[in-house]
Specification:
Length: 275
């Protein structure tokens, strides 16, 4: 009977999960008395990526039958991922383009036109002026970018459309009506400065989410702007792995660094440098 009890204790000790190191920008508080568990948290302004959804509960549990953390079985490592910085607001953005005939193409005229459009409706972000070969008239292609911010935390577990998107839709409705209406005051005012709108050229992009800071990307699950993890860089609004021959040890970056000479490698040089 005594031998059986000793064997059980030894087996239990052999199956204790490995100690957990605190994540980058986070903390861990563990209890190794059965049942073994750890409470984990990220510092204020940081959180785990939704990719590691199992950690959102803030508690790690150890499976005493095999000595592995539950999350270790799912992710293949007992090391905790980084806590990533997040921005409070995400931006809803939409792009509107349309064309118009103008009197001439020069910087003075274009600056006057931009000021007039700003007073009439919304700011013109970009314009390209050229001679249209078919009509033999000067023509500009206009691009307007409408952007509004919101806090995704206000819409957790909600199907409600963010106010930011609703506000942009209201502006778009007014814009479309003014551009396509035959007798709008907007058109009349533009004609006075030699601008003839071409309503059939009006195009609107889909709504998309963007971050206002380089090195951040929108989390597809939470819609929050979160830092790109180490080993990646932000490119065109997405976190992409560093290519072979480059590395990045920091979070929230938009460039990767060239790998050093092998003679100066350290233990934290990533796999992309050794392939």
């Amino acid at each position: 009977m005594i031998n059986l009890m000793v064997n059980k204790i030894i087996i239990g000790m052999d199956n204790v999960c490995k100690p957990v190191e605190p994540p980058h920008k986070g903390s861990v508080n563990c209890s190794y008395e059965p049942p073994v568990y750890c409470n984990i948290s990220c510092d204020d302004g940081y959180e785990f990526s939704s990719e590691h959804h199992l950690l959102s509960s803030g508690k790690l549990e150890c499976d005493a039958t095999d000595g592995l953390w539950i999350y270790e079985k799912l992710y293949g490592t007992h090391l905790l991922p980084e806590c990533l910085g997040r921005l409070q607001n995400t931006f809803v953005e939409v792009e509107v383009t349309f064309s118009a005939y103008v009197e001439r193409c020069d910087e003075i005229y274009e600056s006057e036109l931009e000021s007039s459009v700003l007073d009439l409706l919304v700011a013109m972000n970009q314009q390209i002026c050229f001679m249209d070969s078919s009509s033999k008239r000067y023509k500009i292609n206009n691009t307007w970018i409408l952007k509004a911010s919101y806090d995704p935390s206000d819409y957790v577990n909600s199907d409600e459309v963010p106010d930011a998107e609703t506000n942009i839709e209201t502006i778009l409705d007014v814009t479309l009506k003014e551009i396509k209406s035959k007798n709008s005051k907007f058109k009349e005012d533009l004609l006075q400065i030699g601008v003839e709108l071409l309503p059939d050229t009006y195009l609107q992009s889909h709504f998309f989410l963007v971050c206002e800071k380089d090195g951040y990307a929108v989390d597809p699950i939470t819609n929050k702007c979160v830092e790109c993890p180490s080993g990646t860089m932000e490119k065109n609004g997405a976190c992409v792995p560093c290519p072979i021959g480059y590395f990045q040890l920091s979070t929230g970056q938009y460039l990767c660094e060239v790998c050093p000479e092998p003679s100066s490698w350290t233990s934290d040089i990533p796999k992309t440098c050794s392939d």
